[in-house]
Write a structure and sequence with these properties.
By secondary structure, the chain is mostly beta strands. 11% of the residues lie in helices and 38% in strands. It has 2 helices and 12 strands; from the N terminus they run H-E-E-E-E-E-E-E-E-E-E-E-E-H.
Length: 208
Amino acid sequence: YRMSTLSEENRVLKEMLQQKTLYTAKTGMFEVRRALSDGFTQRYQIDGGSNDGLEVGMPVVTEAGLAGQLIHVAPNPSSQVQLIQDKNQEVPVLFTTSHVRGIVRGSGDGTTLQSRDLPFSDKIKVGEKVVTSGLDGIYPKGIPVGVVTKVEPGDSGSYIDVTVSSPKSIGTSEYVLVLYVDTKVELPDLDEEEENAGDGQVRRKPKR
């Protein structure tokens, strides 16, 4: 049993090291110590802290894609990750086939995300992959977020609601990568035309 555990740990570490090469930002690998979820929140504690250069707001990824964001950092070392499935998390995303941009929010059920009130004309389809759009300047563009599992009319009929399947991607005794991005730069809210101008990389803090 111990041999199989070591083999699995080595496989995960190898995958995580491969993931490091995908990001232009500096990354740090940390172990997940324990779950802090209470049924209403989706949080985990990792063994990195401010002494490692970690800051609140930095993205956390695994071999499966985007896991969450640091919401508390202590020096001892100890930091809390709030998963993207948490109701308090919002992530700017791109639907890769229809090229629609939107915001997904945690549903709180631990496995799905919601994007509500998208214009009805949008051609989002079940099975479409969803990645980070990079518009907020915090989450780098192109990190896998999930797959569309449901598209249905909103309450008003003029909009659609989209469900994205994004299984909980971290657990205790596993490893995550923290992306050392600049979390302090914040710009005023811009309208849609300004957001899409230039290279699209508008740097804004996501809501927390």
